[in-house]
């Protein structure tokens, strides 16, 4: 390719230059300038102040780059050179030439002009190749799992045996992945990349939601050394978007444990550590429409740290919990606080899993106390996955094995009696049971319920029980009379027993 281009230049009677990457790197070319300006450094292009800068710009040299300079028919000048930390290159006879912030084409122009202006070469044809680019160092701040400074590696593409392939420059998604992923509460529409290009600070706006929603790969811009990536917090959260971001390949890795604090109407409030599994896509080029279906599966839901999982870890809800007005209180990277409203009743009623908010490290979950208790809702809530696995029922009185029993939620009165060994056949009044309930509003109710073991579940004869209910089995009339007689004759027996002992002693 170089020889054909050189023939073209010579046939046109032009002296110029040719720029390209070495075969192992990505090509960077620039058109030949019409004239060389007699200044120490070439003027750099200026971008219009009122327009956005281009996203993909020619590569500019800096300290750490390895370049090759080929001077046609001058092999002693043609070799590889390291761009030093001060952005200079030590060239034969020219000593240090500053190539910092120059494109490959501009560096070729500068070197050509220097050799000509000093009378060292006549009509030279010079090609500058980028052999190995310098490391890409960036900073990532805002809504990422681990903000900080990172070196984003290049990717080798097409290596086969002894034949070296090309280099793929890192993109913004590569940087987010190294920073442990973007939080689901990020504003993916307004990401900013701050770049210093040719001495001018530029702000490049990136809309990664277009990448998630439409597969627009143009939003996955190539990074340059020194870029700063700012990920803002979303002003408000759309549950559908939050779940789609959570399953994107550049989202925060949900298998990394997070610390949360849960307070309010749960059985064991306090701090908890939640861990999940990685439900992200593994292909950077994926368009993520299919992942909306993936997230509805039981396996995928199990891998996401959500409000319901936090409640489950804290022993489940109490009967006084208001699950329509749960709050997730979050400290944003900018120091502000964000409150996410969660309605788990909507999750129970409609199965809308998006109501189950995804948690982030440091979140606080507040479960308020309900002001109005609906017993039907309490029963339905008792069987929810985020309620306790077992409830405590205290069965006392005339049963074979009285005491507190840990039973399944919504167990019936008959089942609780059987769990306590059933009635004491000699003493129990087996036709009725007393149900004593401490209501969430602090009141106590007591009901006499006829016992019929053949009756199905119903509120009159076989109601479902709630946590901390007390079932009291009374004595039968015969047992009561027997107990009264026993209590009457016991003192007499004791007196007679004492008299008998005295008589034995006298004899």
Walk me through this protein's architecture:
With 507 residues, the chain is an alpha+beta fold. It folds into four domains: 2-134, 2-Layer Sandwich (wza like fold); 135-235, Outer membrane lipoprotein wza domain like (Outer membrane lipoprotein wza fold like), CATH 3.10.560; 253-386, Roll (Outer membrane lipoprotein wza fold like), CATH 3.10.560; 391-475, Outer membrane lipoprotein wza fold like (Roll). It is 22% helix and 24% strand. The chain has twelve helices and 23 strands. It has helices at residues 2-11, 104-117, 172-178, 208-214, 239-246, 291-294, 298-302, 307-313, 344-350, 375-382, 413-419, 477-506; strands at residues 17-19, 66-71, 79-82, 88-91, 95-98, 126-132, 136-142, 148-152, 155-157, 166-168, 191-197, 200-206, 228-231, 258-264, 270-274, 326-331, 337-342, 364-367, 391-397, 403-407, 432-438, 444-450, 470-473. The strands form six sheets. A five-stranded mixed sheet has the order 8-7-13-11-12, with helices on one face. The chain has a five-stranded mixed sheet with strand order 15-14-18-16-17, with helices on one face. The chain has a five-stranded mixed sheet with strand order 20-19-23-21-22, covered by helices on one side. A hairpin with a 7-residue loop joins strand 2 (66-71) and strand 3. The longest helix is centred in the C-terminal third of the chain and has 30 residues, at 477-506. The radius of gyration is 39 Å and the shape is rod-shaped. It starts with a helix and ends with a helix. Mean pLDDT is 78; it is low at 1-51 and 278-301.
């Amino acid at each position: 390719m170089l020889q054909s281009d050189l023939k073209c230049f010579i046939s046109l009677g032009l002296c110029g230059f040719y720029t390209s990457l070495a075969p192992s790197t990505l090509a960077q070319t620039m058109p030949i300038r019409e004239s060389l300006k007699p200044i120490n450094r070439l003027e750099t292009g200026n971008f219009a102040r009122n327009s956005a800068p281009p996203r993909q710009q020619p590569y500019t040299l800096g300290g750490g780059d390895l370049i090759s300079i080929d001077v046609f028919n001058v092999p002693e000048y043609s070799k590889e050179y390291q761009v030093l930390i001060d952005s200079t290159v030590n060239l034969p006879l020219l000593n240090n030439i500053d190539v910092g912030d120059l494109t490959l084409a501009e560096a070729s122009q500068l070197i050509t002009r220097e050799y000509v202006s000093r009378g060292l070469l006549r009509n030279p044809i010079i090609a500058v190749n980028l052999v190995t680019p310098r490391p890409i160092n960036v900073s990532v701040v805002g809504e990422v799992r681990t903000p900080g400074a990172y070196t984003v590696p290049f990717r080798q593409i097409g290596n086969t045996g002894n034949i070296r392939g090309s280099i793929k420059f890192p993109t913004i998604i590569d940087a987010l992945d190294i920073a442990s992923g973007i939080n689901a509460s990020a504003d993916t529409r307004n990401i900013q990349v701050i770049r210093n290009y040719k001495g001018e600070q530029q702000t490049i706006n990136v809309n990664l939601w277009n990448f998630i929603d439409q597969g627009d790969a143009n939003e996955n811009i190539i990074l340059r050394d020194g870029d700063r990536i700012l990920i803002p917090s979303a002003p408000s959260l759309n549950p559908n978007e939050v779940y789609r971001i959570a399953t994107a390949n550049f989202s925060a890795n949900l298998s990394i444990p997070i610390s949360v604090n849960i307070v309010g109407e749960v059985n064991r409030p306090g701090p908890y550590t939640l861990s999940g599994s990685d439900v992200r896509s593994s292909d950077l080029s994926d368009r993520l429409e299919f992942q909306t279906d993936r997230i509805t599966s039981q396996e995928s839901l199990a891998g996401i740290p959500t409000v319901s999982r936090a409640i489950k870890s804290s022993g489940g809800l109490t009967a006084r919990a208001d699950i329509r007005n749960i709050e997730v209180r979050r400290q944003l990277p900018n120091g502000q606080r964000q409150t996410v409203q969660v309605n788990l009743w909507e999750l129970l009623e409609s199965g809308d899993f998006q109501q189950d908010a995804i948690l982030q490290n440091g979140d606080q979950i507040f479960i308020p106390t309900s002001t109005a208790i609906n017993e039907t809702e309490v029963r339905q809530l008792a069987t929810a996955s985020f309620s306790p696995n077992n409830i405590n029922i205290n069965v006392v009185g005339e049963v074979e094995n009285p005491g507190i029993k840990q039973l399944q939620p919504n167990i019936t009165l008959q089942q609780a009696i059987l769990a306590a060994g059933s009635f004491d056949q000699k003493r129990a009044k087996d036709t009725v049971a007393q149900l004593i309930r401490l209501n969430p509003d602090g009141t106590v109710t007591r009901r006499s319920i006829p016992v019929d073991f053949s009756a199905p579940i119903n509120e009159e004869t076989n109601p479902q029980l709630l946590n901390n209910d007390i079932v009291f089995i009374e004595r039968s009339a015969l047992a009561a009379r027997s107990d009264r007689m026993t209590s009457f004759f016991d003192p007499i027996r004791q007196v007679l027993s004492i008299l008998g002992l005295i008589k034995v002693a006298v004899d």
